[in-house]
Amino acid sequence: MLDVSLSALTAQVFTGIVLGGILVLMAIGLSLIFGLMTVVNFAHGAFYMLGAYVAFSLLGLTKSFWATLVLAPLVVGTLGFLVERLLIRRLYGRSPDDPLLLTFGLSLAMVEGVKLLWGKIGLTVDPPTQLAAAVDLGFMRFPVYRLFVIAVTAAALLALWLFLEKTNVGLIIRAGSRDALMVRALGVDLNRIWLLVFGIGIGMAGLAGVLAGPMRGVYAEMGVEIIIECFVVVVVGGMGSLPGAIVAGLLMGEIVSLTTFFAPRLAEIVVFVVMAAVLLVRPSGLFGEAGLAE
Amino acid sequence: MHRRQFLTTTTAGVTLLAFPAVLRAQTKEPIRIGFPLPLTGTFAAIAADLQKGAQLAMEEINAKGGVMGRKLEVLFRDDELKPAVGAQRTKELIENQKVDFVVGGLAAHVQMAINEQTKAAKKLYISVSQSDEISAKPDTSPLTFHEALNPTITSRTMATYGMQNIGKKWWVVYADYAWGKQNNVVFNAAIAKLGGTVLGSTPYPLGKPEFSAHLPKIQAAKPDAIYAVTPGADNVPFLKQAISFGLKKEARIAQPLHFLYYTKEGGAEVFQDIYGATHFCHELAETLPQAKRYVEAFTKRFTQPPDSYSGYGYNGIHEVARGVELAKSTDSDAVANALRKNREYDHYKGKQWWRACDNKSFQDLWIIKVRSPQQVKGEWGFFDVIGKVAANEELDRTCAEKGHA
After folding, report:
1. Which residues of chain B have a CB within 8 Å of the CB of A12?
2. Are B236 and A124 in contact (CB under 8 A)?
């Protein structure tokens, strides 16, 4: 028998926001990279995992969670630059399958590489002491660290929005995702823009990994699990759509959280059911433009 | 390359290649034991410990001259925590490496796949995984031995102890795979039989340590205690999340099993006052001479004390060796019969025995509780041994219940 009270449901919705927040951070990078570069980045989960591992090591070096929170996404983002410059750039103009295969291979190599560097056994990262407690929200006790994750996610999204909407580079990125050929014809070096976008997208995956580490632990397979959910989010939201990634990410977080409450065993499957249902009604996703992925 | 040069190089090459064969022919072939185990994935830390125990046993036996004048060679293979890979590695070990016996398998679902292969190849298999099915029909076989505890024994023990000492109203969180499900079923039945209540049971996918969506519901139910069947690398994230939601203050927590290495990884702050069962912890060296010898040998060899599963690996290899010595043969049937006829053994922690009907090992187990950070002794002394449950066939299902009529 289920005792469904309003406060229990509110608590459930609240936990769903954090689940969704991590997915949004992941999916937005994935969507950004796809929207501009039509690269399906299968290594996105591996960069999320790498973010968590880099954070573990940086935390050991700097002894400061705050420094780690800033530095780790930058380190991972820089690796993203290198991957774009040295590997993916060679595949532009070929079929979209080629970068997909490349990044898939890369993700396998990264998982094995991490095991070589950090060992096969998972690691533990603690949240900073200031964030370790739980606060009483009236309807439940909620970990301060999870509130912090919501805040960082919101701040990162706001910064990305300002960057895309209010800066000249942002303008070029938006234009480039509409019509790359035209932007090129206007004399813009899109190679540099793609480099930047890939780095930002990867950096956001790294940030998601840094944030997830203290909640879920750090282990080599962590990226493999989340990448599937992220693809679901991107597909449901609409390939290449940033508002779509945000809405679908939060929606998935809530769906998983609420399903866990009523029927925990279905929580794994329900996201795929929702994806199938959305695709039946809107084949290009909630916010997607038809024809983008063709 | 000139003809002569070619001839010299090839001759030299062929000689070199043939050399190991010459060497091998001069000594006796080793007895080979295949050992699949999940060196990657959620159970990697436990598998590493299991491997060390098996290795120590092999080295001890070989240092004393091996078995029937033949060295033991244990071939470890990573089953990646996947049944299909476990089956494949076992098949390769049997067909390509020509192993005489198989020991190992750690996760209940992978171990079943290994068992299918050893059954088909008619090789003796000593499972070191916690599983109820492995020693029951239709999965077991006369060549399948089971060294580990099983969910029935562990969860009946914890339910009995828990009802007397921890609480009457429970909530179960369990990993949704063979071992987790079996523990949930057994624990529910045992608590009901003892007059307690299980308010609810929550499954979660093994290896996916995000529990936040489960926790508000558990908190709302206000159980006295939580039975956390969150094995391997899921253990620390579960407890940390339970603490961060304030759940550890509201309810006591018990686990079917405690592991030293995860406890150390998570730290005493996280694990303090959590109850669990174990078939071995290095603190037993303080009271048991056999354990003292084993812990000292292990610590000397690996510069850290053993966790619990190394004991299973250690016993698995020692039992194969004992069986071969008794049977004077490496024939799997002969070794299995010899072990059933000479049921008792004691390699590292006291008397154990194989039950004749199901080849199940019976052994003592202990209830342990994690000390507070101030009470932890040295680097590794996390556990207070608070109770002993002597080996007892009645803790498990009967031979008839397991289908051995």
Report:
1. 213, 216-217
2. yes
Do B94 and B52 share a domain, yes or no?
Answer: yes
A270 CB within 8 Å of a chain B CB: no
Tens of pLDDT, residue by residue, chain B (405 residues): 565 665 565 555 555 555 554 444 446 899 999 999 999 888 888 999 999 999 999 999 999 999 999 999 999 999 999 999 999 999 999 999 999 999 999 999 999 999 999 999 999 999 999 999 999 999 999 999 999 999 999 999 999 999 999 999 999 999 999 899 999 999 999 999 999 999 999 999 988 888 989 998 898 899 999 999 999 889 999 999 999 888 999 999 999 999 999 999 889 999 999 999 999 999 999 999 999 999 999 999 999 999 999 999 999 999 999 999 999 999 999 999 999 999 999 999 999 999 999 999 999 999 999 999 999 999 999 999 999 999 999 999 999 999 997
Q: What is the domain range of residue B372?
A: 152-278+365-395
Q: Is A138 on the interface with B (CB under 8 A)?
A: no
Report the complex ipTM.
Answer: 0.85
Task: Assess if residue B21 is contained within a domain.
Answer: no
Query: A124 CB near a chain B CB, below 8 Å?
Result: yes
Bond preceding residue B138 cis, omega within 30 of 0: yes
3-state SS assignment for residue A137: coil
Neighbours of A294 (CB within 10 A): 7
Number of domains in chain B: 2
Q: How many CB pairs under 8 A join A and B?
A: 100
CATH number at residue B65: 3.40.50.2300
A226 to chain B, closest Cα gap in Å: 10
